[in-house]
Design brief:
Strand content: 25-35%
Distance between the termini: 66 Å
Number of strands: 32
Largest sheet: 5 strands, parallel
Bound molecules: flavin-adenine dinucleotide
Shape: globular
Number of helices: 17
Strand order of the largest sheet: 3-2-1-7-18
Structural class: alpha/beta
Radius of gyration: 27 Å
Amino acid sequence: LGQRIVIIGGVACGLKAASRARRLDGQADITVIEQGRHISYAACGMPYVISGRIKKVEDLVQRTPAYFERLKGIRMLTGCRATAIDRGRKVVRYLGGAGGEAEAPRELPYDKLVLATGARPVAPPLPGLDLPGVFRLKDLADTEAILKVVCKAKRAVIIGAGPIGVEMAEAFRARGLEVVLIEARGQLLPGLLDFEMARLLERHLTRQGVDVRCGAKLLRFEGEEGLARVVTSSEAATEAVLEADLALLAIGVRPNVELAREAGLAIGQTGAIKVDDHLRTSDPDIYAGGDCAEMRHLLTGKPVYIPLGTTANKHGRVIADNICGGGDTFPGVMGTALLKAFDYTVGRSGLTAEAAREAGFDAAQALVPAPDHAHYYGGAQAFALKLICERPGGRLLGVQIVGPGEVAGRLDTAVAAMSFGATAEQLSKIDFGYSPPFAQAMDALIVAANVARNKLAGVASVLPEEVRRALDGPDAPLLVDVRGAPERQKARLGVGEVVHLPFPQLRKGMAKLPKDRDLITFCWGGQRAYEAALILRRSGFERVRFMDGSLFTWPYELEEDDPGWR
Ligand SMILES: Cc1cc2nc3c(=O)[nH]c(=O)nc-3n(C[C@H](O)[C@H](O)[C@H](O)COP(=O)(O)OP(=O)(O)OC[C@H]3O[C@@H](n4cnc5c(N)ncnc54)[C@H](O)[C@@H]3O)c2cc1C
């Protein structure tokens, strides 16, 4: 008989490891222990079943236990829970099976053990957490439970504006519910996006009818027989009471590490199971991967916990290769994330500006709105693209893209460049494909890379956050709006002293601008503002700079008469 491989956890990482191990080793005796009813399902698709886009929960199930047993010769112990690992005797104890958990624990010997136990939703012990109507979304049972009430519910409150919270806001709106999305921190997707990028998403969600409340903390759930109210903190230091018949707690997940901890395996500083590049735990015969394992951040070299399905699948393959005699490695992650939010796509990877600062990088930021393809082709849509690079060399540290149009491909292109350590200059010279339906002659990524190069070369531009701070300072700058009148009618800055000087009239009208005051030019997206600042500087205005991303990415006070102005 071949080596005995036992895998705990039968979803992404566990089953990828099992399948790959079988491909590599036809003789291995492979057993998967899974406590749940379902195996091999696409958890990432659950929001789309709840929205109604995917018709049935079963559509998310890729393979059945019978498939693995009959076709692959892998023993599937579903409905069985591993309760302990005896590393000395190399056995896993488990409960369940035909007789249920009432039966005495059984033992399963292993030569190699894989921990693919995943994670579970964080649920702080707040009053009302167990009321009917309060949900979490982790597995198919949760999906089924939400589906049972979503068609009757009228008002949903989502707690937590991470990727799942944002995706679920869309799902509940698609079912016709009123939706309030509350987030304790000051922005959507905290830690994933910088503030101005998160504000673009927030405005889009608001336009789609989601009541977004950042800076509000969940206090408790209230109701008699079922959920009736969600109580949160509010800015006014009083409590806000939100009527609700459905609440979703989506404030993150914690790795399932109890088995590992009790078996004496090392737990990393993030609280997940510590593994090396080969995904081996502190016991060379035990591997761990997916949502229960710690990873290394490729840019900081530090341990991180970023649980994602894509990583879990890759881990499964690496683990199987190593168990079966190979020497594969998983170097780490960059925190790449992609999600759909109504008509927008959000893509991000690497470090945010704040994370880059915290990690000790001197980071430059390029912020550009850009159409996703040639405007003359028709139907072009503008998204905002941000690149973060290290000074002075320009190595790419982060990318964020928010908006409609083709975001995903550009994200992955930037991620590929970042993975190979590219600089902004190298990104700007990649031979991208161009045809009007797909891109501009200078693709948005190239434009952003060139803006980053300008920044590194010292071109005098300021980010919206710097402008906003300066407006509250003692020598507030004068803002120069170089857009034409029709554009100004649609949307205007809602703060600061603004002079209107349309770009075509700049040379004639510049005499009215003061030379002894800081000037900041702005336009729709920054390009005309840049040109205007250059003209003014060459005309003797030494204190002029232009605003990166201009009005398009301005996250603060705005007066909008036409919501479609972007
Ligand atoms: C709503 C939602 C949307 C998501 N969207 C995305 C996305 O778009 N992109 C992306 O990359 N990721 C996404 N994810 C994350 C992704 O689903 C997870 O990262 C992935 O499922 C992790 O796989 P895993 O195998 O490590 O763990 P899991 O899928 O959690 O599987 C672990 C399994 O182990 C079992 N188990 C645990 N302990 C025991 C035990 N003691 N005995 C027996 N069995 C045990 C559990 O029952 C569970 O079935 C999403 C997650 C959710 C919830």
